[in-house]
Design brief:
By secondary structure, this protein is α/β, with parallel strands linked by helices. The protein is built from 15 helices and 24 strands. Among the domains are: 182 residues, Rossmann fold (3-Layer(aba) Sandwich); 67 residues, Luciferase, domain 3 (Roll); 96 residues, GMP Synthetase, Chain A, domain 3. β5, α5 and β6 form a beta-alpha-beta unit. α7 packs across α8. The mean pLDDT is 95. Bound molecules: adenosine monophosphate. Adenosine monophosphate (AMP) binds next to β14, β18 and β19.
Length: 540
């Protein structure tokens, strides 16, 4: 028997309808790419998003067509997002940090018809325009006064483009499972793969991150969304903020400590989210200026492991709660957050701070487990590490235009991360499965050794890779970039590690290099390191 409740599809633009109707006066503040701070409201965003949808219709964009954006977090980007999705087209966010060959591949693979682009990224588009076979038009996210000269064909300033239509328009009637957005992963091997979000998954994800033990947004909040819309959906903040009626603050291109601080202070920001690198910049600025963070009460740190020092600085020096999060593009992207829970309230502060170093626990709508190489479930004992698998309505079931199956026979998605899960449900990443070092039948966590090694005075960056070993199958090699003028040798580094990691985890050798290679999204390219050191012979 079916229930007798309304068939009410979960559509992304209904979030904006709700926000505009019930919190229409709520501000959205942007540090514009042109420079000055711009202020608008949720009601205006909706009105202009409807004009985007109408203008797209005029351009002949149909349901399911891909329309791309390469833009900072700004109110115009937000209008374009909702306009594209509300029109039934697929909003394809392009990450400007990807390499030219990757962007070439991605735009052609997605068959983007229109690209919205910030002035900052015009040179990228100009360099690639002749390779973009499907692109018919470029819309520059600015007004005619700020429109630079450009060699792009069929190009128009955004403000002129939407000025040509009014907002007398309706969102498309869509199935909630229709594709809404597309984001390619920047994997370290092979071509990037397209993660295709649906209206339903985006709405559910927006609601999921609004749960009190995740970001817990309320209408009183002022939220600085630093994490980019072009990489993993700004961690769903573009949906969660208008759904809650909170104030939205967007940093544009200003990611340095001073610019971030100004927004935190002037806009009385209570909650914000970014990767650790951004927070390092802010913490340095605070240290140099002696400034405090009187309004901020929680900071979400994710995308890479949050260094223990950062947790302590925010919590102890600035009285700001750290919410350590983990996730991935394929998970929309949030998978876990490390909020304390009832059972951890009995722990002393030190133990709680230590627990925050873990990547956290799943909210409702994410399932998670670890398995061994044979696919058998592993215990939640906080010690046994294994392949981390996930499931849920906001987790990918495949990649765009790729036929290969990505789920296990019983429907789990393999994250490629290696982790432990403790009895309270807190997960800790110990490695990527391609990077874990298999020595004598046991696993050595390259990440843990790196984390300890970067604490060694004089070490600027550290990477650990496994190299073949005749007896142990693999052994760790520690690769180090020294700080300028640091006096370090392999023996002093090994002496520092001694006692801080298990004896059998000790690297067999230490080498010093000028630079460690990174992917476009800042991850260490271990494959590249493994191939560079493939002829290396351990000295012992
Ligand atoms: P991406 O899809 O580019 O966002 O990358 C996702 C990957 O980033 C995950 O599978 C993890 O390997 C890594 N990652 C994300 N958040 C964290 C975190 N808090 N700690 C450690 N690794 C993380």
């Amino acid at each position: 028997m079916l229930g007798l409740m309304q068939d009410y599809p979960l559509l992304v633009h209904t979030i904006l309808d709700h926000g505009a109707l019930n919190h229409g006066e709520r501000e959205l503040v942007t540090r514009s790419v042109e420079g000055p701070i711009r202020r608008t409201t949720l009601a205006e965003i909706r009105e202009r998003a409807l004009r985007v949808a109408k203008a797209l219709h005029k351009e002949g964009i149909k349901q399911g067509d891909r329309v791309a954006t390469m833009a900072w977090n700004t109110e115009r980007h937000m209008e374009a997002w909702f306009g594209i999705m509300g029109h039934g087209a697929v909003c394809h966010t392009l990450n400007p940090r990807l390499f030219a060959e990757q962007l070439d591949y991605i735009v052609n693979h997605a068959e983007d018809r229109i690209i919205f682009v910030d002035t900052t990224f015009l040179p990228i588009m100009e360099a690639l325009k002749d390779r973009f076979a499907s692109v018919e038009k470029y819309i520059v996210l600015t007004d005619s006064d700020h429109m630079p000269a450009t060699s792009l064909p069929n190009v128009v300033a955004y403000e002129d483009w939407i000025a040509a239509v009014d907002a007398d328009y309706r969102w498309q009637k869509l199935d909630e499972n229709s594709a809404a957005a597309l984001c390619y992963t920047s994997g370290t091997t092979g071509n990037p793969k397209g993660v295709l979000y649906s209206h339903r998954s985006n709405v559910l994800h927006g609601l999921m991150v609004n749960q009190p033990d995740v970001f817990g947004l309320r209408s009183e909040d002022s939220v600085l969304a630093i994490v980019p819309m072009f990489h993993a959906n700004a961690w769903a903040l573009t949906f969660a903020v208008p759904a809650s009626g909170a104030k939205m603050v967007m940093p544009g291109a200003g990611m340095d400590g001073k610019s971030i601080y100004e927004l935190l202070e002037n806009e009385k920001v209570s909650c914000t989210a970014a990767v650790p690198t951004v927070w390092l910049g802010l913490l340095q600025y605070l240290e140099q200026t002696g400034k405090k963070l009187p309004y901020l009460n929680r900071v979400v740190v994710g995308g890479a492991a949050c260094p223990p020092m950062m947790i302590r600085k925010f919590e102890l020096d600035f009285d700001v709660e750290v919410i350590h999060g983990w996730g991935m593009t394929e998970m929309s992207p949030v998978g876990t957050t490390g909020k304390m829970k009832h059972a951890t309230s009995v722990l002393d502060r030190e133990s709680q701070l230590k627990l925050k170093e873990k990547q956290g626990r799943t909210p409702f709508l994410v399932e998670m487990k670890t398995v061994n190489d044979e696919g058998e479930d592993l215990p939640r004992d906080g010690k046994t590490s294994g392949h981390l698998l996930v499931k849920g309505p906001c987790v990918s079931s495949g990649y765009f235009k790729l036929d290969e199956p990505v789920l296990t026979a019983d429907g789990w998605f393999n994250t490629g991360d290696i982790a432990t899960i403790d009895p309270l449900g807190f997960m800790q990443i110990t490695d990527r499965d391609k990077d874990v070092i298999k020595s004598g039948g046991e696993w050595i966590s390259s990440i843990e050794v790196e984390n300890v090694a970067v604490g060694c005075p004089g070490v600027a960056e550290a990477a650990v890779i496994g190299l073949p070993h005749p007896k142990w199958s693999e052994r760790p090699l520690l690769i180090i970039v020294k700080e300028a003028d640091a006096e370090l040798d392999d023996q002093s580094v090994l002496a520092y590690l001694d006692g801080k990691i298990a004896k059998w985890w000790m690297p067999d050798d230490v080498v010093f290099v000028e630079e460690i290679p990174h992917t476009a999204t800042g991850k260490i390219q271990k494959m590249e390191l493994r191939s560079r050191f493939s002829d290396f012979e351990f000295s012992s």
